[in-house]
Fold this protein.
Amino acid sequence: MMKSITNVYLVLFMSLLITGCSSRTKAFSQVDENFRTGSQGLTFKFMPFSPPDKIFDNEELRFRIEISNKGAEDVVGTNNRAYVSGFDTSIITGIPTNGVEIPELEGKKVFNPDGSFDNVELLGFIRDLRARNIDKYQPAVLATFCYKYKTIADPNICVDPDPFSTTVSNKVCNFQTQPSLGTQGAPVAINRVDVEAAPGKTRFKIYVQNVGSGDVLHDGADILDRCNPYDPKGLDVNDIDFVHIDEVVLGDISIIGSCKPLDNGYLRLKTSGAGFMMCEVDGLIGPAYTTPLRITVSYNYRETLTTNLNIIQTP
């Protein structure tokens, strides 16, 4: 009898152990250590029937837009906003010209590889078309989204203080093997780093490119205000195609002070959406080694989305 009870406990223990291991395996299978991939930040789409294909002038006009954070950075702050424009405000009223706030959205993480999503709504009202002798009104509508974002890249770099040594036959790395870089889960990417070594010194040519579908904007807070299509001042050429270089750190050594050409920490991208900077580290000694080169870039970003309205006079 005692032996039978012991066997029962043993079976129960093994079952719990297997269940626990299975749950743990499932949890680890949901971990994505390579979450900093992709060329998107926020994505936007009009939700079904918002607006509908056809609407009468005695109905409310609702723009409901789903916003997803497909990138690797969180979106926070009241200056991130969505706007709707392109229509005659004497016919469609009530749409706030200061837009609506984009809700806080967590980006992709190790345990959240899909990011997060939410929606915003802008409500308007249509004036009587019959009173204006208008049978139908069919404007194209532009939705504009302005938000702050960031790109972080940390490729492994081979640092060789004595690259042309003939006394060391085996080295752990070769500076001529360029680091592999793709996208970092953001609409701006550090898409290439060229490494050039000299005795005691290593130089880096770091390429930055707009890989998203929108416009890169200067990261100043007032830029987000002027990103509003209703703003009388609006944006000018000096507000577009600038990124701020927050940090360039080799291992634990900040080398951002050596980076050129930067203007007060800003790098200007060309009309093609690409630019580069040269950085270097000096005074290196010792054997070759591999270390991360951490590059952090911040900016504002603008995306647009269009739809067509078909407003019919009420019978």
User: Anything to note?
Assistant: The longest helix spans residues 2-29. Confidence is low (pLDDT under 50) at residues 21-29.
